[in-house]
Amino acid sequence: MIEYLVIAAALATLLAAFAYIGSMFRGGAKPNRISWLMWAIAPFIATAAARSNGVGWAVLPVFMAGFSPFLIFTASFLTNKAYWKLSNFDYICGGLSGMALVLWYLTKDPNVAIVLAIASDGLATIPTLIKAWRRPETESIWPFVTGVFGALSSLAVATLWTFSEYAFPIYLLIVNIMVLLAIYQKKLLHL
């Protein structure tokens, strides 16, 4: 029965990706392509590592945490309204994020893979976190709201309570809350 919660979170994540893509086509959201590309890759690796350690339903939100950014990254090339100028800092974060993935490949250890996938994803988050803080109007909240829901649903169906089952969902919970706080920081500071 609890698996339905994970399926609902997966569907909500997919709908949020489509909402973000719609915002891009209307000229609202302007994704940092480096962040969205790396956000796609790292969860895919964490999914593979968790599956290799026997994680079941709890991995679906982690997979969706990669699939939705992949859709957003791909769609960002289909409209000029989604353009966000990348800086050297963005490329450095992307390069470090990629290096973490290469290190994972060299270790072949599922738990190390998850740690490095978290490091990779975290490094990829920095440019968008800064952008959301400085220009919150260039982000849509929906992928991050459903990211919180997806991470919580993953934790709700956890059965093994091993590092490979809970590490990435806890990370996703924290990072999605951080981006939401960055988007809403002006409103929160004026309360």
Helix amount, in percent?
over 70%
Average pLDDT taken over every residue: 85
Class from secondary-structure proportions: mainly alpha
What share of the residues does DSSP label as strand, in percent?
under 5%
Uncertain stretches: none
* Domains (count): 1
> What is the ordering of alpha helices and beta strands?
HHHHHHH
Q: What is the terminal-to-terminal distance?
A: 40 Å
Shape verdict:
globular
Radius of gyration: 16 Å
List how many beta strands DSSP finds.
0
| Total helical elements | 7
Largest sheet: none
Structural commentary:
α3 runs antiparallel to α6 (142-156). This protein has helices at 3-25, 33-52, 60-75, 88-107, 110-134, 142-156, 163-189. The protein has 191 residues and is mainly α. It is globular and about 40 Å long. The protein has seven helices and no strands.
Task: Record the SSE blueprint.
Elements: H1 3-25, H2 33-52, H3 60-75, H4 88-107, H5 110-134, H6 142-156, H7 163-189
Helix pairs in contact: 1-3, 1-6, 2-3, 2-4, 2-5, 3-6, 4-5, 5-7, 6-7
Give a brief description.
This protein has 191 residues and is mostly helical. It has seven helices and no strands.
